[in-house]
Design brief:
This is Serine aminopeptidase S33 domain-containing protein. The protein is α/β, with parallel strands linked by helices. It has two domains: about 180 residues, Alpha/Beta hydrolase fold, catalytic domain (Rossmann fold, 3-Layer(aba) Sandwich), CATH 3.40.50; about 50 residues, no CATH class. It is built from nine helices and seven strands, in the order βαβαβαβαααβαβααβ.
Length: about 250
């Protein structure tokens, strides 16, 4: 296992992982990258703690620190893991993760449901426009269904009754924060809150466009920035294929 991969990409949304694919395909042309997926069961309490524990079991016997990366909730899990087990992490790359890690698209969804007396379907349709931009009706319908399922599967503790918060702050290892100037969830103001915790070796970069899933719309532009960051921190780039791993409580 020690030589099988250098970077581990974390995903906590089976239904939205398709939007990671273009970036991972680009990155896998330059490095040994693996995907670790967390799948929450229906009867499991919504919490990222279980995902962090399973990730530790997966990396427990890995003989060197790992470069971790992830988008959204996957990035929040990577951040929580890096704070709890810093000796296992060589660098951290977070995409669309706010300095308040719980400030994700689900939090925006539930906030709108609390604020306005409109249906779940209308809020989800509005969320599609915010996260992906204007889409054709048939695409919007598919994306609404995907977001609806993500609300059930993602390990978030948000609900109609309460919005939760996670600890803010930095990490001890080098960290890269990526966002988009057109992301209404992790917008520029929210993203720049990270500047309060960044170290000299850290990097904050914004994609000019792309909404919340900017890495899907601009995989090469995002990938080039990430590769530059990893190269600065002694990740040797090689041609390799992506690997995939999955964890759940089953």
């Amino acid at each position: 296992m020690s030589d099988s991969f250098d970077v581990l990409w974390l995903n906590a949304s089976p239904v939205l992982k398709r939007f990671d694919k273009p970036l991972l395909e680009y990155l896998s042309g330059y490095m040994r990258i693996a995907q670790w997926e967390y799948q929450q069961t229906k009867d499991e309490a919504s919490s990222i703690d279980q995902a962090v524990e399973l990730l530790y079991k997966f990396l427990e016997w890995h003989d060197r620190p790992m470069h971790l990366a992830g988008h959204g909730m996957g990035g929040a899990i990577a951040l929580s893991f890096a704070r709890r087990f810093p000796q296992k992490v060589r660098s951290l790359t977070l995409l669309a993760v706010a300095a308040q890690p719980a400030n994700n698209w689900q939090a925006h969804y539930y906030f709108q449901r609390q604020l306005f007396s409109i249906s779940r379907e209308l809020v989800l349709a509005s969320s599609v426009r915010s996260l992906f931009g204007n889409q054709p009706p048939h695409t919007t319908k598919k994306l609404v269904a995907a977001l609806d399922k993500d609300l059930e599967q993602s390990p978030t503790s948000h609900s109609l009754f309460k919005l939760v918060y996670l600890p803010k702050g930095g990490v001890s290892m080098p960290m890269m924060i990526c966002g988009s100037k057109t992301d209404p969830v992790v917008n520029s103001t929210v993203l720049h809150d990270w500047l309060n915790w960044l170290k000299p070796e850290d990097k904050l970069w914004e994609c000019p466009e792309g909404y919340h899933f900017f890495h899907y719309f601009y995989p090469q532009q995002v990938g080039e920035q990430i590769l530059s960051f990893w190269k600065r921190h002694n990740l040797h780039l090689v041609e390799a294929s992506a690997l995939s791993f999955s964890s759940s409580t089953n």
